[in-house]
Amino acid sequence: MTVIALTMPADQDISEYLAYLLASANRRMHLGLAQSIAPEEVTEEHWRVLQVLSDEQGRSMGELAERVLMNHPALTKNIDRLVSRGLVQRAADAQDNRKVLVYISDLGLEVVQRLKVNVDAHHGAVAEAMGPRKVEQLKKLLKQFIDESAT
């Protein structure tokens, strides 16, 4: 990987930094998504967990943490909340009783279906505001950034 140094003048406006722009975009997306899923009384983190588990394949906490972009303590707290609401359940892995898997419940599947409508509407509004072509370009660039910065 080639590293290109981009030096900014000392008086550079913060909004010119990529880190700031990504954080700002994330904040806007998060706020819009939070409003769209608020009727279901779930957080964005809950939505991500439910969305991943909606394929009805049990996941270990480690695998789930990686997929939903959460550290283990935060994931554990979120799973506890979802269990208390009856949206997910924990069960011992049939292959390895020492391992616990997390599964979505039938109620969780109903909630994730309703959430999908709201999340898709939110993303549709973003696509309408930006234009579908720009959204696809942005997604491509972000995926490329993620892939290339991981190495």
UniProtKB/TrEMBL annotation:
The keyword Ligase does not apply. It comes from the Bacteria. SUPFAM superfamilies: Winged helix' DNA-binding domain. InterPro entries: HTH_MarR-typ, MarR/SlyA-like, WH-like_DNA-bd_sf, WH_DNA-bd_sf. Keywords: DNA-binding, Transcription, Transcription regulation. Residues 15-147 form the HTH marR-type domain. GO terms for biological process: response to stress. One of its GO terms (molecular function) is DNA-binding transcription factor activity. PANTHER family: TRANSCRIPTIONAL REGULATOR SLYA, TRANSCRIPTIONAL REGULATOR, MARR FAMILY. This is Transcriptional regulator. It comes from Pseudaquabacterium pictum.
